[in-house]
Amino acid sequence: MRSIVMCAGVCLGLANVLVADEPDIVIADFEGADYGDWTTTGTAFGPGPARGTLPNQMDVSGYEGQGLVNSYFKGDNATGTLTSPPLTIQRRYINFLLGGGRYPGETCINLLVDGQVVRTATGPNDRPGGTERLDWYTWDVQDLVGQQAVIQIVDQRQGGWGHINVDQLVQSNRKRQAEPQSRRLVMAQRYLHLPVRNGAAVVRMKVTVGNTIVDDFDIELAPGAPSFWAFLDMAQYQGQEAVIEVDRLPGDSQGLAQVRQDDAIPGAATLYQEKYRPQFHFSPCVGWNNDPNGLVFYKGEWHLYFQHNPYGWNWGNMHWGHAVSTDLVHWTQLPIAIYPHQFGDWAFSGGAVVDRDNTAGFKSGTEDVIVASYTSTGRGEVIAYSNDRGRTFADYEGNPVVKHQGRDPKIIWYEPGQHWVMAVYDEEGAGDQLQQRIAFYTSTDLKSWTLQSKLDRYFECPEIFELPVDGNSQNTRWVVYAADGAYQLGRFDGKTFTPDQPEKTRFNWGNCFYASQTYSNVPPEDGRRIQIAWGQIGHPDMPFNQQMNFPVELTLRTTEEGVRLCANPVREVSRLHGKSFALERIMLTDGANPLAGKRGELLHIQAVLEPGDAQQVVLDLRGAQIVYDAAAQTLSCRDKQAPLPAVDGCVQLEILVDRLSIEIFGNGGRIYMPMGMVLDVDNTSLGITAQGGTATIRSLTVHEMQSAWRR
Ligand code: FRU
After folding, report:
1. pTM as predicted
2. 347 C-alpha to center of ligand 1: Å?
């Protein structure tokens, strides 16, 4: 044994004869028009190196010069190989840039000696999304120095990420691949500030204090100047030593060195004053949001949890962010409420209820327990409970409570049966055979659940609730919908939903509505059904991205077409009213604009318009046009259009204008059209005109909205 160790030592010593300053040997840089001495089989590699991104491919980056190997030639379904001529290994390392699919043996680069694969590597991607960036990869080939080898690039995979990208194969005595690194610092201030550069290589960062993992996540760590700073709340760890580890950091990256402490969150001094910050819609201080989660009212607070990536501008690292409001318009963001269970086991969407009767037995103090239900991506449907008014949650030790293929559990209390109901997206099969539906489970203790029924043809983020028709509590319907908002009305007996009609009815006519949810535990004296949806709106060049749509009150109203779900801005919108002016009974003759000279950035507009014999009535709000077409009886904004028949010769419009959105409500909420768009900051002009005839403004009130962030 001893002699073998000795031998290894001697061998290493010999190999060290290779000196670091020997020049690099370029094996291939793929800058030529063809592959030269390299040989191809199949079609995936095309006639020669690609010049960057190929048709229908996400943006390829990270390669050097103009050309690279890109086996996306004619798409993901082409296969083939690309093989180098024999080469002699003369340096300790082979460095190369690598990207594409992460399928060992199928999308890979191999080093072969005597026909045997002695080294192999794949790209980083095996799921939708991901990145077409190439990164440095290094093989340590010290033991192979002097031997003949061939490099073979393989694409034998079809379908998503069925391709491989390679560039700049170089023999070298210097390693280019990123290495794990760590840093220790004693927490003297509350926050760790983390530099993020959009588009930088994703690294995995783990922050620990003693044996506790504070958080473990992916981050586009900025090697140099960041696009923005993210933060990690270390309030609980003051005075203790934190260890920050990253799994891979290129030698020249300043990403870890730049991490710093601060008592304020990044950008605190100018928070909410950013150019594209929504002024009366919720958006996260920093990072990404998608779905609203756990909407629950408790003791005067409207809780808004949300799908949150605290460490990036894009979707990822799903946590439950948290904000509260006492009036649905002013929001205060609180520390993250639910962290991922472990790396990659993200906290996806779900709901929250108040367990007033302590049916689950989680109560430990004087507060009623708030129980959150959500999808833990690695475990299934789980519950977590809070004894501190929704600030922090403990994971139920018996999790998961439901295991199936699906996600997004929303729980409600079914009063007549005195039990809980979970509506959860459930799927079976795949491809053409995929069945998508809502599964309904029941429970008396929130922990053990019994499957009762399934409702076909619904996708993620299901919701179910009961509403009076025309305000009559003796005449109710149950409403069911999923992420797109299209709904069915029907009966629900606590176990099975029976729709009144086979078809769904469209609810949202805009371009930025998804994954909405309604509040639970709203006090009976309030009695409203309040919905918040994810406002799918990109915020260019900002440290945050996406927002929530304005909270709406849902009602059921009888219309000519039957009972319909209507949405109106919650009445608390008036709390933000600033100056206002009103017009009444004004004739709109062809082209005249009674709003000429009026200006406003943030607006709440209420109008009753009589199209008369005009062809169109056009509201021009800061350059965005909302058009009522009288002949077609349609309302449109940008590329979206909704039917809106006049009622008694009039159409009624209510409109909210923020920095990146215009929400339009037609005829008392019968039509709901939330529109995301970047409004020109310098354009505050307003206009209303009639075309092709004379219309009448019965009434028009313009309220200037105050920023909700100005306290
Ligand atoms: C909807 C959704 C949910 C999922 C969550 C993940 O937007 O895909 O189905 O739980 O987002 O962030």
Report:
1. 0.84
2. 10
